[in-house]
User: What shape does this take?
Amino acid sequence: QVQFVESGGGLVQPGGSLRLSCAASGNIFSIYSMGWYRQAPGKQRELVARITSGGVTNYAQSVKGRFTISRDNAKRTVYLQMNSLKPEDTAVYYCNGLPSFESWGQGTQVTVSS
Assistant: This one.
């Protein structure tokens, strides 16, 4: 069973930066595509960034040019560098596989506010 532990969220002013981390358990991490998802209050969970096992990345239009996803297969960790943050980026951020596993982590809260 794969489990995910997200960290790195917090309160940041508009224009600021945060780096999220997600530690994953399970032996299949290195061969699985991974994604960062987010869920804002009252909205559905959405995929914002994805990375294949080989490092090919893809982003939602709303974060393209501001967010960067990366992974370290040896550490079973995926990262999300978030720059030029906007209030609309406020959400709980989760990582999971693509397609997603049934089990989700607790997420990490990102709040962008002045």
About this structure: The mean pLDDT is 95. Strands lie at 4-7, 10-12, 18-24, 34-39, 46-51, 57-59, 67-72, 77-82, 91-97, 108-112.
